[in-house]
Amino acid sequence: MRMMVEPAAARLAASRRSAVDVEAMRAALATMAEHGLADGRGRMADQQFHMTMLEATRNDLIIALASSIMAAIAWTTIYKQRKRALPRDPVPDHRTLFDAIERADPQGAEAAMVDLIALALVDTEVSLLDS
Predict the structure, then answer these.
(1) Number of folded domains that form the chain
(2) Distance in angstroms (rounded) separating the CA atoms of residues 79 and 86
(3) Nearest to 37 by CA among 4, 82, 104
(4) How far apart, in whole angstroms, are the C-alpha atoms of residue 24 and residue 9?
(5) Gyration radius from the chain CA atoms
(6) What confidence score (pLDDT) does residue 83 get?
(7) For residue 117, what are the domain limits?
(8) DSSP state, 39?
(9) How far apart are CA 114 and CA 39, in angstroms?
(10) What does the pLDDT look like over 94-103, one tens digit per residue?
(11) Which of 5, 11, 27, 35 could form a disulfide with 41 if both were Cys (CB 3.0 to 4.6 A apart)?
C-alpha cells in the first residue's frame, strides 16, 4: 500500500507544499536525527514527517489514507527493532526526500520515496530472517 500511495503523494507534495509544510518537515527530520527511531520521540517525529508530507499534497483522498499509512509505518518500525537495533539509519533516506520536496522537485521526491520504501522493505525482510 505504501508503494502505491506515498510516491505519488511525494510528487504532489513537492508541487503543492507551503513554507509551513517545509518547516514542519524540517523540524520532524531534526527530531528524528536527534533521537533515532528506537526512541519514542524519534518515532513520533517520523510519523509527523510522513503526515505533513501527506497533508502537503492538499489531496483529500490521499489524506484520508493517512491513518493506514501511519499504522504501517509505526508497526514496521517497531517490528524491525524488536530483537536488535535498526540495521541502518533511515534518516538519510528521509533527508533525500525532504530535500526534493523543499526544492519543489516532483520527480526527485517521487524517486526518493520509492527508494525510502524499498529500503524499509529490505530492512523488514532482514528482520524476518532474524526471527
Answers:
(1) 1
(2) 10
(3) 82
(4) 17
(5) 14
(6) 67
(7) 2-129
(8) S
(9) 25
(10) 999 999 999 9
(11) 35
Interaxial angle between packed helices 91-102 and 40-55, expressed in degrees from 0 to 180 and rounded to the nearest 10: 30
CATH number, domain of 35, equals 1.20.120.530
pLDDT in tens, 4-63: 999 999 999 999 999 999 999 999 999 999 999 889 999 999 999 999 999 999 999 999
The whole-angstrom separation of Cα 35 and Cα 54 is: 23
The cell for 108 is: 526527485
Which region holds residue 36: left if phi is over 0, alpha if psi is between -120 and 50, else beta?
left
CB neighbourhood size of 121 (10 A): 13
Q: For 51, what's the count of Cα atoms within 13 Å in the CB-facing half-sphere?
A: 14
Rounded distance between C-alpha atoms, residue 73 and residue 90, angstroms: 12
* Of 72, 67, 40, nearest in space to 54 by CA: 67
Cell numbers for 20, please give them.
509551513
